[in-house]
Specification:
This protein is α+β, with helices and mostly antiparallel strands. It is built from 4 helices and 6 strands, in the order H-H-E-H-E-E-E-H-E-E.
Length: about 200
Amino acid sequence: MTTEEKLQHFLDFCMEDSRARSAKLIDEYTAALEKTFEEHQAEARQRAAMQLHQEQEHIKRECNKRLAIEQLQLKRTLGQKNEELKSMIIVELRNRLAEFMDSQEYFPLLEKQIKEAKEFAGDQELIIYMDPADENKIPRLALHHNVTIKPCDHSFLGGIKAEIPSRNILIDNSFATKLEEAKHNFKFDIHLEGGGNNG
């Protein structure tokens, strides 16, 4: 084999070896790049999933916060309306009590209250107080029931108050007290559609 052939053979061998090595390096580099790309994709998907979860949680918190604010506002509005209606009903009740005091049924009620107070007092001293508006009824009631009846120095909207001094007891059957109790205990019972109940 001539020197030129040997050189050609050596060159072919070197070229083949270089091609094989470069192909192997390219394959390894390609595989490494593909692996890095897959890892990068997996990380990106994980980051996106985390970001999506965080965003969902943030939106949920915001919705809950807004819902709580709306519910609070609705409760305030409902409370205000409740108080307005309650005041209207109490005013109406007060007007009806005034009408009742002018009716024929009022005098028998006063008699009944006095009778019950006398029964409760037994043989103890009893003082009956009446509303200043009922002062004209005092003589007749005092005569019928043989009891001390005095006009009160302030209005209590009708009814009676009775005092048993020896036992330090006050019986309060005044309309003002009954009205206050009604106002305090009054509550709307609202049935909402869908079975809800707000009482």
